[in-house]
Amino acid sequence: MLIRLLLLLRLAFLAALAASAALSGATPLVLSQAMSVNSSAAHFPEGAAAQAVRLPDDWTQSRPRYDGGAWYRVGFDLPSGAPSNEPMALYLARVCGALDVELNGQRIHSDARNAAPATRNCQQPRWVSLPSPLLKAQGNVLDLRMQASALQRVASRHRVGALSQLHIGRDSELAGEHASRLFRTVSGVQIVGASVLLVGCLVLLLYAFHRRETPLLHFGGLLVGWAVVSALAWWPDLPLDSKLVEVLVCSGFAVVAAFAVQFLLSHAGLRSRPISIGLALQLPLVPASLWWADPNRIFAIASAWHALFALEVFATMGLALVITWRRQRDDFVSTLLIVAGTAGVLLFELATQVQLLPAQRVPVLQYAMPLVFFAVGARLVRQFARTLRAAEESRASLENRVKEITADIERNFTQLSELRVEQVTEKERKRIAADLHDDLGAKLLTIVHTSESERISTLAREALEEMRLSVRGLTGKPVRLADALADWRAETVSRLGQANIEADWRGPTEEIEHLLPARAYVQTTRILREAVSNIIKHSGASHCKVRSSVGERDFGMLVQDNGKGIPMELDGKLDRGHGMSSMKHRAKQLQGQCLVESGPGYGTVIRLTLPL
Questions:
Q1: Burial, 405: exposed, middle or buried (Cβ in 10 Å; 0-12, 13-18, 19+)?
Q2: What is the CATH number of the domain that holds 301?
């Protein structure tokens, strides 16, 4: 039910629109025929011979090489059914020249500042209100005078004198078409030009922070130059002489072409001093050749310059394609598309200038080239972002490398410092060892041989042995483990034998190639001496078993007696006597361990394990 109601409402609305259109009157009049007279007189020359022309009227076809004023006369009747109180207007899609309008002999519009031909406002659609008091139901006469220039006196075919068809109707009927045309030919071009100018300024600002990126300078100059040249085309009522406008427009294209060539070269990584000099000399030659030339040869000279600009850009684009193919094949497709688009737009414009293609209702060049510029800008931004990312990665890699090198330097410095300390320590050890051996050793040896007391002689001999052991540790020379075991066995068996204790020493039977550091030799010797001394002094043993073994990474020694063991009152306090604490401490200094196992009546077992 609801759907049916909505359908009925929609049909009623469409019927109301149709009825309103039927009551409102006829569609606007489109006048495509006029009588024309070449004259710059203040009013339409009544006695002059007029000729019929079709509208739109292109002066290159109807009056070639004519420069000056021309009158157009058309007659019309008001559309039947048009309300008398509705404002009427005249709409002209294109008028290339200064325009005066008279309705039934009365001047109703004028934008001619002087009698000289003008080529201003060619892109501006005209809107002229028709005063109701001057209008008649039938037999209205509309006269239009246009001051324009011949093709030979302008730099572009787009600024040759031309008049479009005349549209007469109510304001409300023509407002939409006028607004649409105004946007396509003026407002849209203004928006695009302002966007190009803004992007160009941003690119130049970016170049100010990255002076090494020369392509940014040339691309920014290209965008700004194009925006200025585009402004000369749409700027309404530009207060400049017509010839000066033509010179400025052509000179602007010279600047744009120079920046385009330099951008393509710098983007491809090329630098050519002759090309730069040639482009610099070209900039003043263009305005000079146009300003001092015969006014009837401006179009020929400007066309030659435009062809040269196009040839320069085409040649540089071809060179850029070749270089991109050789150096950066990943970017070749995008570069080819951009080059093809640019070439297509330029060729289309050249074809329009030489009339191979008809004039377009929309300024194609003003819209297409900014699209190409934005595509190039997007590609530059992508490449710039990729370059920044690569630079960041390189910077991060460099920072990591610097950290690694710094760590290596610090580590090497620490090692050198430790080596220096070790060298100094070793030197001092050798000095102390030499002093002990030469001074203290000589005095102890003298006491051994000259003392009359046997006890003093024995103590001196023991002190001499301890001194020699200390000297051997200070000198730092490693000892073969086989030699050390032999020394330990000889000393241990001798000391136990003197104490009437039977010694049972067994060691590895295979050949031993290991070396024992001097410090490990000294500390092991003292541990073994302390263990033997405890057996002799405290154990009351009659038998002592010593076993030595050598592994891949350590060697061990076991000393076991059959004595009375450690008394009960010392249970749990082994580190407080019998040199046990010093033995364990020495083993710990060597990254090893010394274990003591004992019980009353079971003897004592000492297990020593040291790393090799």
A1: exposed
A2: 1.20.1070
Q: Answer whether residue 444 is part of any domain.
A: no
Phi-psi region of 16 (alpha: psi -120 to 50; beta: other; left: phi over 0): alpha
For position 546, which CATH number holds?
Answer: 3.30.565.10
First to last CA, the chain: 103
Out of 180, 211, 241, pick the residue that ends a domain.
180
| Token output for 531 | 């263990």
φ, ψ dihedrals at 136, nearest 5°: -120, 155
Predicted pLDDT at 19: 35
Do 149 and 103 fall into the same domain? yes
Nearest-angstrom CA–CA distance, 161 and 148:
5
Question: Which residues span the domain enclosing 377?
Answer: 182-396
Please tell me the predicted confidence (pLDDT) of residue 97.
85
> Looking at the structure, do residues 166 and 192 belong to the same domain, yes or no?
no
Structure confidence by residue, pLDDT tens digits, 424-453: 766 666 666 555 555 555 556 566 556 666
Residue 55 neighbours by CB under 8 Å, 6+ apart? 31, 32, 33, 34, 72, 163, 164, 165, 166
Q: Look at residue 172 and tell me if it is in a domain.
A: yes
Last residue of a domain, one of 161, 180, 199: 180
**Segment 23-40, tens digit of pLDDT:** 344 578 899 999 999 998
Task: Report the C-alpha gap between 264 and 222 in whole angstroms.
Answer: 11
In 132-144, which positions are buried (b, 16+ CB within 10 angstroms) versus exposed (e)? eeebeeeebebbb
Tell me how many domains the chain contains: 3
Angle at 173 between CA 171 and CA 177, to 5 degrees: 100
Residue carrying structure tokens 């010179």: 247
User: What distance in Å separates the CA atoms of residue 88 and residue 125, rounded to the nearest whole number?
Assistant: 17
**Whether residues 209 and 134 fall in one domain:** no
Alpha-carbon distance of 330 to 348, in angstroms, equals 29
Q: How far apart are CA 433 and CA 516, in angstroms?
A: 19
Q: How would you classify the pairing of strands 98-103 and 106-110?
A: antiparallel
**Looking at residue 438, what DSSP letter applies?**
I
Residues 83 and 143 in one domain: yes
Claim to verify: residue 152 and residue 239 sit in the same structural domain:
no
Kind and range of the H or E run holding 597 = strand 593-598
For residue 16, the model assigns a pLDDT of 37
